[in-house]
Amino acid sequence: MSKIPHRLYLTEEQMPTQWYNLRADMKEQPDPLINPGTMKPAQVEDLYPVFCEKLAQQEMDAETRYFDIPEEILEMYKIYRPSPLIRAYNLEKALDTPAKIYFKFEGNNTSGSHKLNSAIAQAYYAKEQGLAGLTTETGAGQWGTALSEACAYFGLPLTVFMVKVSYEQKPFRKAVMETFGSSVIASPSETTNIGREILKSDPTTGGSLGCAISEAVEKAVTSPNHRYVLGSVLNQVLLHQSIIGLETKAAMEILGEYPDVIVGCAGGGSNLGGLIAPFMQDKLTGKANPRIVAVEPASCPSFTRGKYAYDFCDTGRITPMAKMYTLGSDFKPSANHAGGLRYHGMSPILSKLYHDGYMEAVAVEQTKVFEAAVQFAKLETILPAPESSHAILGAIDEALKCKESGEAKTILFGLTGTGYFDMTAYSSYNEGTMSDYIPTDEDLERSLATLPKIPGIQE
Ligand SMILES: *Cc1c(COP(=O)(O)O)cnc(C)c1O
Prior knowledge:
By secondary structure, the chain is an alpha/beta fold. Helices cover 42% and strands 17% of the residues. The strands form five sheets. It has a seven-stranded mixed β-sheet, with helices on both faces. The protein binds pyridoxal-5'-phosphate. Pyridoxal-5'-phosphate (PLP) binds next to helix 6, helix 12 and helix 16.
């Protein structure tokens, strides 16, 4: 029997040339976005002041199954794609499991994450529309970096609102973004109305993604010919990230493999949504039935302890409302949380699929996540991002279950990125000063009490 290679790269000819839109195969659609101005379902034109037009159209499109990837985007994808599908032989051996463990590694680009896949698409459509510039937010910094790379490539000015705790913890992330020509502002800032308001009510706040989003949206709509772009959560982002799953499925087909279990970390849901897309298609159309497991931090447990409800995507409550698993747009994970994935909400597509029983979710504590990260790094030589390490831990748990049951399952997980800018967190883990924080029920009740009321829809 020939041994399966350690890594498989598709050739350029084998690379997907279309994105796959999961909604086209969903039996029931996610509930529509609600325009907070009218309290009615948002129309595509409602999104044009905030998003560029092609992206707003992708956001609202539940019918088109496949979208051709424009040539210019394919050309840039070819600079760093395909990403490898890797068999974690050493990890399997160390766990003494009969399971086969595969992972798709998205960290081989300067952003150190999968986020470049959508950043390129969003910058391309903005350029095509003739926009003067873009604004965005970034938490840990990967999205800001990815978008900076893409904007530099297409020659578009970019302003990034970076969550203040990250801005202070990760000065090198800021330096990378500035190297690509972006302007980076710590959020909350004095440069927007909403930033000034938040600072007035809480002067020492470390900020949050929800708050940085509010600032970025305000900046976009008050600057001529600018638009806002977002790196996760949205339907359009899951569409672009389907490249991950499509490549993975093609590579597994070449190997004659199919996953029994697919594990991914979940912040806003974009990498997981992208990785599972073609496998979920099989599930929705009855061709196969892989288990799908989302792994989220216990400190920001949207799926496992959140509510499936309409909520704002930002703290300032200026974005459309989305029906999703949410902890409340005011929720801020504890400052000792280093593991990324700190967004209060979750992709409406994944939320709907989870709600309808197509996937599972688990919440894990960050010290365990770092333990898995270090074990993985030593065995497989990749220093994983803390976010990605949630998926590693999830995959290890699945492999250990196989060890107990003696089942030789095929496990696939998404390794979304590298952790070179997370060394403060690794140091605190190494020094034994990292702690776990799990919000109390009262904490969650407090933030969930702020869910919006929508007449006739959510009272
Ligand atoms: C942003 C990010 C995530 C989480 O975002 P999703 O939208 O849930 O995928 C995970 N891993 C890395 C490396 C990231 O940069």
